[in-house]
Amino acid sequence: MRQHKTHLDTLAISLLLGCCLFWGFQQVLIKATIAEIPPIFQASLRLAGATVLLWLWCLWRGVPLFNRDGTLKAGLLAGALFGAEFACIYLGLQYTTASRLTVFMYTSPFWVALLVPFWVSAERLRGMQWAGLLLAFAGVVFALWEGFTSGPGATAQGDVLALLAGMFWGLTTVVIRASGLVKISAEKLLFYQLAMSCVCFPLLSLALGETWSWRFSPFAITSLALQTVVGAFASYLAWMWLLGRYPATKISVFVFFTPLFALLFGALWLHESATPGLLAALATVALGIVLVNRKPAA
């Protein structure tokens, strides 16, 4: 029987940090690849590849995907929200910078914190935890403030799409935690989302008039491989596994690390300065996460 834990342990924290580390890098990959592969077509290839990988994984592990367990409606809803999230991400990166999109997208924990407790009373946040959530978000906004005021390539259209992506991500988590989806395997949960998006995204790409070309540069091939294998398959499978075993409100607050990892990648690879303000923001996010995950007094 699946064990549900009330607090994050070392395994959960390690997996979450690993996911956030890659997700911080992934937005840069997507935006860099848009110049060669249109956004929705790029997402279609990524999701199709991840769906095949997940299906092969389930065959190898003997995980049933098509058994009747009463989760079809909730699974289709989660899949639709998941697809809407990624449509907003890929389209939004045409109109704004990766770091700006990321900070707006990672408003998703607020949707989780606001809505999940209506169905899962054990996940209701206390005053100090709300303070931690707000502190973590304030750290992200502070770190990216310079990009908000002077960064090129940002538009209101990109900001709106990023906010919608964050909302759809948060609502996907709410549907999972408030329905029977939390009781099924992480593989089947992810399959609902990948498979539905895999069917819809090529149609959306054609509807938007995107040009499909099958001649890719080595960089584009590497980008798609990383987005598919590490991003859409491994990291999302780990995320679904965590959602089934740990409190969603405490998991979701970790996503605030992602935009800060993106800034750190820029400092390390693009030789951008890691300012004292950035380091202060990292400390603020870390403190917020500690407050959200602090065990209640006995």
Keywords for this entry:
transmembrane; membrane; mainly alpha; 298 residues; 0% strand
Task: Provide a descriptive summary of the structure in words.
The chain has 298 residues and is mostly helical. It has one domain (10-292). Helices cover 71% and strands 0% of the residues. It has 13 helices and no strands. The protein has helices spanning 10-34, 39-61, 72-92, 98-105, 108-115, 127-143, 145-150, 156-177, 186-207, 218-243, 248-252, 257-269, 276-292. α4 (98-105) packs parallel to α8 and α9 (186-207) packs across α10 (218-243). It starts with 9 loop residues before the first helix and ends in a 6-residue tail after the last helix. The model has no long low-confidence stretch (mean pLDDT 82). Belongs to the EamA transporter family. It is a multi-pass membrane protein. This is DMT family transporter.
Could you outline the blueprint of secondary structure elements for this entry?
Layout: H1 10-34, H2 39-61, H3 72-92, H4 98-105, H5 108-115, H6 127-143, H7 145-150, H8 156-177, H9 186-207, H10 218-243, H11 248-252, H12 257-269, H13 276-292
Helix pairs in contact: 1-10, 1-12, 2-3, 2-9, 2-10, 3-8, 3-9, 4-8, 5-8, 6-13, 9-10
